[in-house]
Amino acid sequence: MDIKEGFVGTVGNTPLIRLNSFSEETGCEILGKAEFLNPGGSVKDRAALYIIQDAEDKGLLKPGGTVVEGTAGNTGIGLAHICNAKGYKCLIIIPETQSQEKMDALRTLGAEVRPVPAVPYKNPNNYVKLSGRTAKEMENAIWANQFDNLANRQAHYETTGPEIWQQTDGKVDAWVAATGTGGTFAGVSMFLKEKNPQIKSIVADPMGSGLYSYVKTGEINTEGNSITEGIGNSRITANMEGVPIDDAIQIDDKEAVRVIYQLLEKDGLFMGGSVGINVGAAVALAKEMGPGHTIVTVLCDSGSRYQSRLYNREWLAQKGLLPER
Ligand code: PMP
């Protein structure tokens, strides 16, 4: 018998997919970890599960309690599913710039959703800081605190990293991923480097995120912006502290859009915007390293979460990002 224990038992163990069109173009094996196949639809199910289990193990989250989080959407969706499965309440504070699809999904799942103005992290009313204060003021509530809670990267150190190692038989030359909290990048990097320090660990960064300049110069420069959601940062989170980074690659929105449309039209994969940054960086890296290398990245979530934006020709045209056909 092979039966999974509900939602929680179904998180992780995702396939590793060869991205055929880009692999053929570059002569490298470009492999994507199919995180959109998690039961809540994104890579964040893993972090949500570890954060809740960690709070339970520490006795911080008790029956009937509330999980509070500031999230761009996917972590909230993962938390909301797990809260339902485990009998907790869920309160999500989200920047009002995030897609309607994600807000609707959260409400459908029964989470209380509070959209707030999108202001930078240094502003005390930033959604992350607001969520921390809100949790503190409530009884029997925990703050998931995905950016600085190390249970997040631990999920990837204990599951995503080992899965990639096993699925490739250890034959990985490089690991490349964009960072939101940095949990995915960090956990996988730490695990793979322990197994083989020769594996390159490369940050993919959208325009307007500070990681690229940080890796290149040591300074955080956040000039510019991106239509991608859930990635990019203006600070080094606790999850990213002390994590090995060999280099960074910056990918602009035009390239990210080109990549997700190629994945759709040539590979039949319907992907979210951060996948455009990840696979765009994997392709750039393949060109830099030359043929014959194996490069692993993440397919974070599905395009269905961005139907009204990335897959809406009018919206793309308004942004000057309509791909050539
Ligand atoms: N892509 C998407 C679509 C996301 O929602 C997130 C999480 N915010 C990421 C990538 C980045 O994952 P992490 O937080 O583990 O860095």
UniProtKB/TrEMBL annotation:
Pfam families: PALP (PF00291). This is cysteine synthase. It is an enzyme of class 2 (transferase). It comes from Coleofasciculus chthonoplastes PCC 7420. Its EC number is 2.5.1.47. GO terms for biological process: cysteine biosynthetic process from serine. It catalyses: O-acetyl-L-serine + hydrogen sulfide = L-cysteine + acetate. It comes from the Bacteria. The keyword Amino-acid biosynthesis applies. Keywords: Amino-acid biosynthesis, Pyridoxal phosphate, Transferase, Transit peptide. PANTHER family: CYSTATHIONINE BETA-SYNTHASE.
